[in-house]
Design a protein that fits this description.
Length: 491
């Protein structure tokens, strides 16, 4: 899960490179994605349209409809949260710039700006707004506002029912298929690429997404995610060198931080109640954008038609072991690890086996998909044990709308590989040395900046704590006892 920080020197007709030369303007993903072809009821990018073609090889899914009123309520909730956040940010910015002691010591304009941009990414603020807005709506004398609250509670209940149904069905299926799996363990179709009945779904949770996209961005700002990461950092044996503001993260710390973020975000996306599922939708800009797009592109007598897919959570799947296959004119052109920040020596060592399993499974569904589209990307999950492979989803579009992983779409040679081949498979072959990377012609690509800042602060706090403990131990060691006249100097 990553954010892009685009340089500020983008101009009409192109952008400026490091040497000031104009760079050819690249296709903008958002501009391409927000078209009716991707947001109409028959779009093959919607899960309800591609699911039948891969159903045997993916996860149990139940669809929950969203009414027009519920969609409006989701948008209104996010809009109000952002508005209240913006007001809070402005008040804090002004107070900090003026050196108002209520907000701490006087700060420079730059520090004030940084501090004041945090509300919409601040878990405590979001928690307080969640409690306040829903309570406020429930008491509002305006019938429309009160109806928003009622509609969200109805959606929460529908999601809760769907979640319990998916979990109960999965558990029943697992029990019924234990003996079948034992009897068929030597069958080729149940070896390495087995699917609907060959997985462990004991988490009791589900993953949710709209017909179009998931609200995965919301997980980055949840209290659960932040507390999970903080807890892991506090338990870590790795400490920043120096302990001060200049303390640098080692490669081991960078790798560990990436793992902590992925584990925490993944945990937050596994929901067990309708309330947890609804909260993700309410806090997601992706959900807000897709609901808005669906409303915008309605034609004729069409009504709001997005749905929520409630999908079983498979504990066999490690989100860092997901891969994206690109298909152009019905032919596979490229394969990449999905999380291109992630390095795992096991993936590097088993690269050929992973490729073989993915292409083998793709062959089983390609002809069904070809009847609907010949240009798409399809995401797979391979379990670290290499025993199972699953289809995650089908995306009826290619780069730059779809993320291209370790293939850099702005580089012509990579773009040609994505569009024409020859087939190539890329995984990260060495760990990153920082939680960001520079992409030529684009700028700095980094993990979610608020999370990076939080992790750095937590690491620095742990380093200072260790320094104090070591200093205290040194002082205690150097104190002379009654029978000794020795002393030492402590710097």
């Amino acid at each position: 899960m990553t954010d892009f920080a685009i340089p500020g020197d983008i101009v009409l007709g192109g952008e400026k490179g490091r040497n000031g030369d104009e760079v050819k303007q690249r296709p903008q993903p958002s501009r391409e994605y927000f078209r009716r072809e991707h947001h109409n009821p028959s779009s093959y990018g919607r899960i309800e349209n591609w699911l039948p073609d891969v159903k045997q090889f993916t996860f149990q899914t139940t669809m929950v409809p969203i009414s027009a009123l519920q969609a409006k309520a989701i948008l209104k909730y996010r809009d109000e949260t952002k508005l209240r956040g913006a007001v809070r940010d402005q008040e804090r910015r002004e107070a900090l710039s003026a050196g108002d002691e209520r907000w701490g010591a006087a700060a420079s304009g730059e520090a004030a700006q940084d501090f004041a941009e945090k509300s919409i990414h601040d878990p405590k603020f979001l928690d307080s707004m969640y409690a306040f807005i829903l309570d406020d709506w429930s008491k509002d004398k305006d019938k429309e506002v009160n109806a928003w609250h009622t509609s969200l509670k109805q959606l929460e209940q529908a999601l809760d029912t769907a979640i319990h149904s998916v979990v109960a069905t999965r558990r029943d299926d697992s029990k019924n298929n234990i003996n079948n799996n034992k009897n068929n363990k030597n069958n080729d179709d149940n070896n390495n690429t087995n699917y609907s009945n060959n997985r462990d779904s004991d988490s009791g949770g589900v993953f949710i997404k709209l017909s179009t996209r998931s609200p995965k961005d919301a997980s980055l700002n949840l209290t659960k995610t932040h507390e999970h990461i903080k807890s892991n950092i506090r338990a870590s044996s790795l400490v920043l060198g120096g302990g001060g503001e200049e303390g640098k993260a080692s490669k081991e710390i960078v790798k560990e931080d990436l793992r902590f973020v992925n584990e925490a975000a993944s945990s937050s996306l596994c929901v067990t109640t309708g309330a947890e599922a609804l909260r993700l939708l309410l806090e997601s800009d992706r959900a807000h954008s897709d609901i808005t797009a669906n409303q915008l592109y309605l034609e004729g007598d069409e009504n709001f038609n997005l749905q929520i897919a409630v999908r079983e959570w498979c504990s066999d799947v490690d989100s860092d072991w997901e891969f994206r296959l690109f298909v152009v004119d019905g032919k596979s052109t490229a394969l990449t690890i999905y999380n291109d920040f992630y390095y795992d020596a096991r993936i590097v060592a088993n690269k050929e086996a992973i490729q073989a399993q993915i292409l083998s499974l793709w062959e089983k569904v390609r002809h069904s998909i070809d009847k609907k589209t010949k240009n798409y990307c399809i995401d797979f999950a391979v379990t670290p044990s290499l025993e199972k492979t699953f289809i995650i989803e089908v995306n009826n579009f290619l780069a730059p709308i779809a993320g291209s992983g370790l293939f850099k779409y702005n580089k012509m040679e990579d773009r040609k590989l994505l569009e024409e081949g020859p087939f190539s498979f890329r995984v990260r072959t060495a760990p990153l040395v920082a939680l960001e990377e520079e992409i030529e012609g684009v700028g700095i690509r980094t993990l979610h900046p608020p999370l990076v800042a939080m992790m750095k602060a937590e690491r620095l706090a742990m380093a200072r704590k260790k320094q104090k403990q070591e200093h205290k131990a040194t002082v205690a060691t150097c104190q002379p006892d009654a029978s000794s006249s020795s002393s030492c100097s402590v710097m």
